[in-house]
Amino acid sequence: MPEDGGKIVLTVKRAAKFYGSKLVFKDVSCELHAGEVMLVAGPNGAGKSTLMRIMAGLSRPTAGEAVMHVAPERFAYLGHATFIYPGMSALANLRFWAGMYGMSPSRDELVSLLERVGLERAAEEKAGGFSRGMAQRLNLARVYMVGPELVFLDEPGTGLDPRSLNVLRREIAGFREQGTAVVWISHHVAEDTMLADTVLALGGRRVDYFGPASGFDAGRLAC
User: Fold this and answer.
1) Residue 18 belongs to what domain range?
2) How far is CA 197 from CA 86, 172, 179, in A?
3) Which pLDDT score, from 0 to 100, does residue 3 have?
4) Stated pTM of the model
5) Is position 110 within any domain?
6) Residue 131, in any domain of the structure
7) Distance CA 162, CA 207 (A)
């Protein structure tokens, strides 16, 4: 967490989720501050992605609440699906997304975004031919373009090649440095805990741990 405590950008209070009569989790509470990276951990089926969707306002909790303290256009969500348009080039994808946000960046500005994620040489290539790692890096460029205050990353490293995984980790650190808060679900918990400020671990249908990343034992998880 930033030394000054930072602005609170996300609050979750006693959130619970049921699917029918099946309890996913209950009594989940946490706060996230500007410039803070929170890793959401837990075994498969613990409800990590469900919790993230609730945090992002994409799903409603059965009980409790999740409140984002940022404007709707100032948060970004990066999930399993890349949402790129395969018939369009990397540049065209960014230009299209920019238009959706009412932005009109120059070609040089878009190329600069692609350079940041190592895709400048593929600027004019159709995204349909991209590897999983390249597609996810293009998605990251889209996130940067928006300049969000809060970013949700749902297992963005799944299936990535080593280069793309390194880019992802580098840019998560970059988000922190620029004051952007990050909620991050990772399959590489042991390695990625070192890049987080706090950890929220789900287990036994409730919060098993919420606190400093330095005090979390990743070995306790069966991910």
Assistant:
1) 8-85+149-216
2) 36, 12, 13
3) 47
4) 0.89
5) no
6) no
7) 31
